[in-house]
Amino acid sequence: MDAYKVTPLLKFRVTQHVIDNSIIPSTLRPLPDIGAPTVTRNFSFDQTSGHWTINGLELRSKQDRRPSSVGTTEKWIFTNPTDVTHMVHIHDVDQQCLRRDGGPCYPYEQ
What we know:
Blueprint: E1 39-48, E2 51-54, E3 57-58, E4 74-79
Parallel strand pairs: 1-4
Antiparallel strand pairs: 1-2, 2-3
């Protein structure tokens, strides 16, 4: 359902039973070496007057941030000084989590 317009978007019709014989490997491939970062950028998510801000700029809609150059490695540091969790997601770039709250990333982030 589209939550905004409350309209059905997709329907699944299961028409046959199949056996899933797929196997999940015990270890996945090692992460590729993405090289040393060419630049480090900081993004601070905060709240001012009840509104989310990124680096002091009010977040009323999405804010586009792009790597400086195609094919380079950048280190992006996200901080949130508030007590409220704020989810962040990144599109159209490969990413690796290095640390979370000073400790290891969650297993699914590595």
